[in-house]
Amino acid sequence: MNLTTETAKKWFLAAGREIQENKGYLSELDQAIGDGDHGHNMARGFSEVEKKIASETYEDVGGVVKDASMTIISKVGGAAGPLYGTAFLKASGVWKNKSTLSDEEFAEGLKAAIEGIAKRGKSEQGQKTMLDVWIPVLEEAEKGSIDVHQLVRTAKEAMEKTKDIEAKKGRAAYLGDRSIGHLDPGAYSSYLLFEALAEAVDEEGEESNG
Question: Which is nearest to 149 in space by CA: 111, 102, 202?
Fold first, then answer.
């Protein structure tokens, strides 16, 4: 996978489109087990990310991701803002001063992001949260040569498995075993994020080949 500064920018713009298209469904998922506003919060925040980064010129991947992270922290409401914002802020530190990421560097950034999410959310894998997607994606990325479409397949499978997990974190935890049978909205938006990454990598590849 070739992740350049320009690809990183395309990634967040594509993520905004994905979330905008799915905001109703994300909020529907959240209505079943949470506050019901996940999709609309994420869509509002990522539209602010687009405003922030679209016309900026960046020297490195870390710069794009840091700007996105700070915007997410300040503009995305609910629990999602601090969690996604922290994830990207931690990743941006690893990707600072790098105009192109190797597969290994990409995985290192993902690992830092996951540590940020776990610490901020006081959560771990298996508790029906976004970590149930991010951790399997990291494990796939750490295998070596990254196939971005395999990352998406991994993210999708992991997201679908959250349906069978009992929630242990957030408002969903109050439902106990009644949370089983529902997809986790944070896991679903995480899956959309990795789908957007594949879109950005493909788009960049087409432009460089064209």
Answer: 202
